[in-house]
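Section 5.1 Outputs to date
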Amino acid sequence: MEKVMVSVFISVMLCFVLLLVGLVLGMFGFVVGREKSSPFECGFDPVGSSRVPFSLRFFLLAVIFVVFDVEIVLLFPAVMVIGGLSMWIDGYLTLFFLLVLLFGGVIHEWREGSLEWES
């Protein structure tokens, strides 16, 4: 128990030190001028606007990817213990509920058309 407390203390102190370093470095203001605030395109003058609208469908697909990437992280520990008897019935029910919820999300996205690559 004492080793855990020491490691937690060291982690918290490291976070505070990094926070303070960032604050101190941030107090030295950066030079803001016409050159610093203009977009840079290989030394040439910018062509067009730097605020180009992006596809909303691409954004939604990226969000879906992040959600299902996180669910893989949530499922990985369950897959590691599912073969043994160390997982009780509430663990199986929780895993089943998570899988039903994720499958329902996939069905919803499929019906909505967010998983279509064309059009």
